[in-house]
Amino acid sequence: MRGLLISLLVAAVVMLTPQVNAQPAPTPLAYAGKTALVTGSTDGLGREIARALAAQGAHVIVHGRNAERGQALVEEIMKSGKGSASFLAADFASMAAVRDFADTIARRHPKLDLLVNNAGVAIAADQPRRVSADGHELQFAVNYLAGWVLTNRLRPNLAAAAPSRVINVASGAASPIDFDDVMLERPGAHSRGYGQSKLAQVSMTVALAPAFARQGITMVSLHPATFMDTTMVVRDLGVTPRTSVADGRDHVMSLVLAPTLEPGAFYVEGRPSRPGYPQPYDAAARQRLMTLSAQLTGVPAQ
Fold first, then answer.
1. Alpha-carbon torsion angle 270, 276, 277, 281, nearest 10
2. Is residue 280 a contact partner of residue 202, using CB atoms and an 8 Å limit?
3. Is 271 helix (H, G, I), strand (E, B) or coil?
4. Is the separation of the CB atoms in 31 and 114 below 8 Å?
5. If you average pLDDT over every residue of the chain, what do you get?
6. Exposed e or buried b for every residue in 246-259, given b needs 16+ CB within 10 A?
7. Is the pLDDT confidence value at 15 over 50?
8. Interstrand relation of 114-117 and 84-89 (parallel, antiparallel or unpaired)
9. I need a labelling partner for 198 at 20 to 30 A (CA). Which of 18, 137, 139, 157 fits?
10. Going by C-beta distance under 8 Å and a sequence separation of 6 or more, which residues neighbour residue 13?
11. Helix axis angle, 146-153 relative to 95-108, nearest 10°?
12. pLDDT tens digits, residue range 199-258?
């Protein structure tokens, strides 16, 4: 009898004890057999992202202006036995070259699983203002307008591969867009060029992400790391590095592989944040930028 009472008490305790259902950790995205385009991937952060994606088993489209460096990276990846790679050169200082580049990618790769808009240029404040082949301020052209063209021209390919992603490598070094002097022709204005181009990337992301998300394309932007030890930081800007390229690579890859992301968000250290200026969240300013971008590139928002 006593044994029966004990058994009944144990059963009652078990029934009354809350059952905790352990939820399995979300599974990171897999890129084996998928296709990824990483712009500006013959050096610095882009090169490390390309290597990391190939290690995941992806086919990486390597982009840059230097064919020798591009082919060297392709050969390195092919010899690694992980993933695969191909190289396509394009000078992003020319909108015609960017449009041709996008059209070539679109023909060769009907499905594109990932676009990383990473290519960029930085001009030190003590250097003279520079312009692109089209007469646009160089940083605005390379860092922002080229990504606008690719993102919109390759939207059908990204949609065909959905769920797919666009990762825009922006920066916390932001400056608001002066729509009365976007090309920074006023004396000393070009010192804001890098920050303006990066805030434009964030604005584009906020503006386009909702429509892209409806097609299964998740678009985000991010600040990868502060003053990485890249050629652009050390040589072009003459700044003492504060972080490594590996830091930036790991942040980008954490978003590439994350099971879920918040469309349109600006990520810092893996979490949605906001840049130092509110302009990307001003609907009128975003629309003004979208209209200007279509006019300057000949590529409307798709």
1. 20
2. yes
3. strand
4. yes
5. 90
6. ebbbebbbebbbbe
7. no
8. unpaired
9. 157
10. none
11. 30
12. 999 999 999 999 999 999 999 999 997 767 666 545 555 667 668 899 999 999 999 999
* Mean pLDDT on 166-176: 94
Cα separation values, 167 from 37, 38, 119, 205, 207, Å: 10, 9, 12, 9, 14
User: 131: Cβ–Cβ under 8 A, 6 or more apart, which residues?
Assistant: 137, 138, 141, 183
Kindly list the catalytic residues: 194
User: What is the predicted pLDDT for the residue at 13?
Assistant: 42
Indicate whether this model's pTM tops 0.70: yes
- Distance CA(47)–CA(137), nearest Å, equals 25
Residue 198: its pLDDT value, please?
96
- SS3 string, 76-132, reads HHHHHCCCEEEEEECCCCCHHHHHHHHHHHHHHCCCCCEEEECCCCCCCCCCCCCEC
Q: Which domains does the chain have, with CATH numbers?
A: 29-297 (3.40.50.720)
| CA–CA gap between residue 68 and residue 43 (Å, rounded) | 12
pLDDT band at 22 (very low <50, low <70, confident <90, very high): low
Q: What is the largest CA-CA distance in the chain?
A: 97
Token pair, residue 153, equals 């021209």
The secondary element (H helix, E strand) that includes residue 201 is helix 193-213
Structure tokens at 129: 């203002």
Give the number of residues written for the chain: 302
